[in-house]
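Quick one, T. Sequence first:
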Amino acid sequence: MTHAEEWVSLFDGKTTSGWEANEKPECFTVENGELKLNGGMAHLFCVKEGYADLKNFEFKADVKTLPGANSGFFFHTENRGKGSLKKGYEAQINTSFTKDPRKTGSLVDVRDVDQSPVPDDQWYEYKILVDGKHIVVSINGKPVVDYMEEEKPTRKKGREERLLSHGAIAIQAHDPNSTTFMRNIQIRKLPD
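Structure tokens:
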């Protein structure tokens, strides 16, 4: 990890400038300097110049969930319009959403975690490292998932594109009963 660039802010705390929703932009609002996710299933893609298509990077954000919230960070993905994201990985955010057993820190359907390392109603740092075929998901500085993608990984039906390649970062709003807050959203590129 030599020659990493400096950390760059992806969220100004005032607007969703540099981001674009694939649908339902009303699910992404800014309140008190925080990005609020609520209102239904939609994804907010980073379109900031120079950061819309990434390969190797470190990403971090402060996250807080209200009880029953579900969200996630997608990476190496792309905006194909309305609907769920097929390309890339999802790093799960879920402390107490009971309809999904995959908890915060999971690489959904690849390396799942069954207990959240953090409680609801509390800010924590969520960090994702992608370096070559290596992915590390850390919560408050502690690795939760450390995964090395195999040469030809097996994926279940509907998840065949859950692979490392390159692409965008996207933030997921999940359902009308999920409320998640984010702040200090930052990224730094690593050498390819």
